[in-house]
# Entry
Amino acid sequence: MVGLDLDGRRVVVVGGGTVAQRRLGLLIASGADVHVISREVTPAVEGMATSGQITVVLRAYADGDLDGAWYAIACTDEPETNAAVVAE
# Structure
């Protein structure tokens, strides 16, 4: 992922749809400690959580969700949520 060393680093992905799903494989492969925050997730994202590859919190993004994150990705179809992630 963009040449970053993410091994063991906390990465927060806001959104659990197909855009997030496409990015999760690379994050997992890079050794990132991946946390997804989304109201709902695709079956593939749910499978990654069930297998222990990522953690998923099923709820809306809230200010403070990026505390402790080394890297964050906004992957929602909600411009106001994506802007809030960028601002945090």
About this structure: The beta strands are 10-14, 33-38, 55-58, 71-74. The first helix runs from residue 18 to 29. The first strand starts at residue 10 and ends at 14.
